[in-house]
Design brief:
Elements: H1 5-10, H2 20-26, E1 28-46, E2 49-65, E3 68-73, E4 76-82, E5 92-94, E6 100-106, E7 115-123, H3 127-136, E8 140-141, H4 147-151
Parallel strand pairs: 5-8
Antiparallel strand pairs: 1-2, 1-7, 2-3, 3-4, 5-6, 6-7
Length: 152
Amino acid sequence: MKKTLLYRLLGLGSVPKKLLPLLEQEGIVVYDEGMSGWFIAKHVNGPGKRYRHRSEGFSGCLVVTKERLICYTYGKRQINISFEDPKIANLYVDIPKEEKLCLSFESSDFQEAWNGLIEFRFNTTKAHQFREALIEIGVQQGAAPDPRSSRQ
């Protein structure tokens, strides 16, 4: 899969240089950087935020070590969860198409004042490697259920 233009020109979407030695020390299982992708928020409500449906493209990285899962988009940390945290079981991983990886979750599982569905969709040739590594540590397979669809 091609790396994003912003990654090739400016390094946006790379693993932060200060964090890389720590991740290597933890033992990197699989990682990819400079991936294009989409952040999607469906029916998300939180303090000062309300999104019926929001989509935003990004250049990012995803790293699975022997201890945690980390995701950065445009240099901003989006996911950082230890495999010892019981909330890891509230994440969902799916491969909707070849070389596409989807991580999804109900936002209230991670932020008390929030609710709604959050998805990160990555374009990566390592989609199957990520899915296998994440399922092995307790992430659920499939897509997170949309809480609004169960209310209707």
